[in-house]
Amino acid sequence: MSIPGVDPILVIATKNRGKSAEIQGALKDFPVLVKDLNDFGPVAEPVEDGATFEENAYKKASFTARVLGLPALADDSGLKVQALAGAPGIHSARYAGPGATDSDNNAKLLKALSGKANRKARFCCVLSLAVPSGAALTYEAFCEGLILDSARGDNGFGYDPLFLYPPMGKTFAEMSTEQKLSVSHRGLALRELKNEFAKVLRWLERRREEEDLRRGAHDMCCDK
User: Fold this and answer.
1) What are the E-state strand segments in 33-159?
2) What is residue 161's DSSP assignment?
3) Please, what are the averages of pLDDT over each run of 10 residues along the chain (224 residues)?
4) Fewer CB within 10 Å, N- or C-terminus of the chain?
5) d(Cα 12, Cα 129) in Å, to the nearest integer?
């Protein structure tokens, strides 16, 4: 049961401060206390072995929700490059290998695209909002663009310096956070979530009440 006058807690299932900042900024006007994994002690992380962004987003959200006993929002996103048959795709964060930095991944991408005329790419994002019982809501969005021959801009993270958004003539790394959220894959998915956030809060409350009832029934059974 929620406590009157206290905003519910929503945990963003990431330690990536750039990603967390984007999501927290998008939800700042809503009656929810947003935290991320940096606000907790050591937390085990799930194995991201899903075949799709949706599978991995759900794995992260449901695992975090179960471990912390709180609703968790996970993002799984990545870059699909047409000339590379959709790579790096779900492996975007570790394209250059385990522990790869953004610079390592960008360098490998540029090497893979060397000499290729087709620079079309798509950023994909899936948001999964899960509760400890395993129930979840899913939001998905895309953003089309081009991969440049060299980095431009100092903002953002990941492949942002290489991803040109033609309608603005800027890379994601040349945009302000507000500009990026207005057009990016993550921003569009968050907009879907924001547009029905009142319903989401009611859904979370119902899931919490169901969990309280299950816990109460279990306690009564064990007391007999």
Assistant:
1) 33-36, 72-81, 120-130, 136-147
2) T
3) 62 89 86 93 86 96 95 95 98 94 98 97 97 95 98 94 98 94 94 92 89 65 58
4) C
5) 9
CA atoms of 89 and 86, how far apart (whole Å): 6
Q: Which residues pair with 12 in a beta bridge?
A: 36, 73
Active-site residue flag, 36: no
**How far is 123 from 186, CA to CA, in rounded Å?**
9
| Chain centre distance of CA 85 | 23
How far, in Å, CA of 192 to CA of 202, rounded?
A: 16
Helix (H) or strand (E) holding 9: strand 9-12
Q: What are 106's two structure tokens?
A: 């960008």
Number of helices (H), then strands (E), belonging to the chain: the values are: 6, 7
pLDDT computed for residue 29 by the predictor = 86
Nearest to 26 by CA among 139, 144, 121: 139
Angstrom distance (rounded) from CA 23 to CA 36: 10
> From its phi and psi, is residue 85 left (phi > 0), alpha (psi between -120 and 50) or beta?
left
| Nearest-angstrom CA–CA distance, 17 and 28 | 16
Q: pTM of the prediction?
A: 0.85
Tokens 């998008």 locate to: 26
C-alpha 37/C-alpha 14 separation (Å) is 6
Residue tagged active-site, from 7, 39, 49, 76: 76
Domain boundaries, the chain: 9-223
**CATH topology for the 9-223 domain:** Maf protein (3.90.950)
Q: Indicate left, alpha or beta for 174 from its phi (over 0: left) and psi (-120 to 50: alpha).
A: alpha
Tokens linked to 105? 């991944």
